[in-house]
Amino acid sequence: MYDSIRCGGGGDELVRAVVKVVVVIHHGGGGTTAAGLKAGCPTAIVPFFGDQFFWGDKVHEKGLGPKPIPVDQLTVETLVNAVEFMLQPEVKCHAMDIARLIQNEDGVADAVDAFHRHLPDELPMSAALLAANDCPNLVQWFFVQIGIICCHICW
To answer: Which of 5, 33, 131, 142 shows the greatest Cβ crowding within 10 Å of its Cβ?
Structure first.
């Protein structure tokens, strides 16, 4: 099973593999974190770079796993403590709750809604364009109108 995942298994394959384990311990990349939580597994994160520290903090804040263990602090003792934390029944309950939320969400629709909520009411025109001409050229005007119509339909 490990070799098939390591050799390029996709996200769904990783989720199916994680369902077969009780807890997960990993580096804390966004995709791996999501796969473990989607499977309802308590998660320990051993970050060493980038956003891994962020995901480790978020997992701990939500009660889904222990405090992240920076890779240079990983010992047998910190690992045993992390596993003991994750084996607590309330941690498993939190992980199952978040798994249900993930299963029921529509991430694409949520992302589109967030995008539209952050668009300005009117599309900005560059000062140089407005100064050079009181009205934009026909192509620019057309695309501005399409943007206005599409945004208002979605709002």
So the answer is: 33
Per-residue pLDDT band for 51 (boundaries 50, 70, 90) equals very high
Contacts of 81 (CB under 8 A, 6+ apart): 66
Q: Are 66 and 120 in contact (CB under 8 A)?
A: no
Residue 106: its H or E element: none
Domain 2-105 sits in which CATH superfamily? Glycogen Phosphorylase B; (3.40.50.2000)
Tokens representing residue 129 in the block: 């364009």
Contact 22, 2 (CB under 8 A): no
Q: Provide the 10 A C-beta neighbour count for residue 118.
A: 7
pLDDT (tens digit, 9 = 90+) per residue, 64-107?
999 999 999 999 999 999 999 999 999 999 999 999 999 898 88
Distance of CA 112 to the CA centre of its chain: 15
pTM score, two decimals? 0.62
On whether the CB atoms of residues 119 and 80 are closer than 8 A, the answer is no
pLDDT of amino acid 47: 96
